[in-house]
Automatic annotation (TrEMBL):
Residues passing through the membrane, by range: 16-38
UniProt KW keywords: ATP-binding, Kinase, Membrane, Nucleotide-binding, Serine/threonine-protein kinase, Signal, Transferase, Transmembrane, Transmembrane helix
Family recorded in the similarity comment: Belongs to the protein kinase superfamily.
Localization terms from the record: Membrane
GO cellular component: membrane
GO molecular function terms noted in the UniProt entry: ATP binding; protein serine/threonine kinase activity
Protein name, entry field: Receptor-like protein kinase
Stored SMART domains: S_TKc (SM00220)
Topology with respect to the bilayer: Single-pass membrane protein
Residues where ATP binds: K114
């Protein structure tokens, strides 16, 4: 039988235990509430920084950004980019859609930050989505790498890898023409491989629409990378033609069908590459009114030299040494095939790579200006049978390129192997 004193002590101990438990529960509940409130405030503050106005993002753009967050590009804040670019002080260049600034992140990675601007938010959104949805999903040694993007009310920007030597045009048309012919040929081959990857190896074919020297960037070792996908368009492989809502491309490089009511295919990039290739061969602009009239339009002058059998003279005028003349002649023939008036007469880009690398025989091209001669009523001396080029597969022509062909399983699920 317990004594009264023992019973009293047990009751006091039990009461103290209950009191402690109550205190612990209250503290835990308060801490939980405090953590939850802080977390919600942090989320609200973050959202306010990115979207200060709930009306800022259209439904389409909101869904697009959510989709892209599941892709590879990183989403940067405006503060991160201002710090990296020292508040946008080092301007690398500017164009119709924005200005490009040099930057460096804390880990030492150098970048080029393209700040988008335009006449309307709709145009900026179109430019932004075109670049991120195309180059943001693919990786190839000869395509400019997109590190990430920023889309805030006060800053819409794209973050690319930094290319030390800038664009190809300054080495073709500027005073600094220090690149030798073999280096230029390597640049042409690398550019062709990048375009071939866009056309033939991506899950969805990507048409660039604006291939020109200013959009071919060179790294520290003068390796080329295709850049500026602001006009690019994704298209399913089942669709043989693309619907256009307006003209695209740059005059002088844009294929005839881009300015006429003709069906559009990826062959418009082949035409632009041919015009680019001619400028690489001549180290001059295709149209130069300071030259004699016969040489004013370089593509026509080149064709006339080829047609008359004066290729040696052409090589001499272009400054191609004798040891490089076989290579130069291959480049000329390839360019003339690429700029054929009819899209189906132009080769696929994987075939262009083989032609430039000497992996296939190049037949004499027909007159690429025959259609213009017919329209003007001039006689056409070239009566060659029209050539059409069939589709090529991964295994057919890019064995020495920097892309790696996906397996059938990878193709089925749209998995792409990155090359480096």
């Amino acid at each position: 039988m317990s004594s009264p004193g023992a019973t009293g002590n047990a009751a006091d101990s039990s009461g103290a235990t209950v009191y402690i438990i109550v205190i612990v529960v209250v503290v835990v509940v308060k801490v939980s509430i405090l953590v939850y409130v802080c977390h919600k405030r942090e989320q609200t503050g973050s959202n306010n920084n990115v979207y200060p106005d709930s009306q800022f993002l259209t439904l389409t753009m909101d869904r697009f950004l959510n989709d892209m967050e599941r892709e590879k590009p990183i989403r940067f804040t405006s503060q991160q980019l201002r710090i990296a670019t020292d508040n946008f002080t080092n301007l690398l260049g500017s164009g119709g859609f924005g200005a490009v600034y040099k930057g460096i992140f804390s880990n030492g990675t150098m970048v080029a930050v393209k700040v988008l601007y335009g006449n309307s938010d709709k145009r900026i959104e179109e430019q932004f989505m075109a670049e991120v949805s195309t180059i943001g999903r693919v990786h190839h040694f000869n395509l400019l790498r997109l590190y990430g993007f920023c889309f805030e009310r006060n800053l819409r920007a794209l973050v690319y890898e930094y290319m030390k030597n800038g664009s190809l045009d300054k080495f073709l048309f500027g005073e600094d023409k220090k690149l030798g012919f073999q280096r230029l040929q390597a640049i042409a081959v690398g550019t062709a491989k990048g375009i071939a990857y866009l056309h033939e190896e991506c899950q969805q074919r990507i048409i660039h629409y604006d291939i020109k020297p200013g959009n071919i960037l060179l790294d520290a070792n003068f390796f080329p990378k295709v850049a500026d996908f602001g006009l690019a368009k994704l298209c399913n492989r089942d669709n043989t033609h693309v619907t256009m809502t307006g003209g695209r491309g740059t005059p002088g490089y844009a294929a005839p069908e881009l300015w006429m009511p003709y069906p559009i295919t990826h062959k418009c990039d082949v035409y632009s590459f041919g015009m680019l290739l001619l400028e690489i061969i001549g180290k001059r602009r295709n149209l130069d009114r300071n030259l004699p009239e016969s040489q004013e339009w370089f593509p026509m002058w080149v064709w006339k030299k080829v047609e008359s059998g004066s290729v040696v003279e052409l090589m001499m005028v272009c400054g191609v040494d004798e040891e490089d003349r076989d290579m130069g002649e291959r480049m000329v023939k390839t360019a003339l095939w690429c700029i054929q008036h009819r899209p189906d007469s132009r080769p696929w880009m994987s075939m262009v790579v083989k032609m430039l690398e000497g992996a296939t025989e190049i037949h004499s091209p027909p007159n690429p200006f025959a259609a213009f001669l017919l329209e003007s009523g001039a006689p056409n001396k070239n009566n060659s049978t029209r050539t059409t080029w069939t589709d090529t597969s991964c295994d057919s022509g890019l064995s020495s390129s920097n892309l790696i062909c996906a397996t059938p399983v990878m193709r089925q699920y749209g998995i792409e192997m990155a090359s480096s």
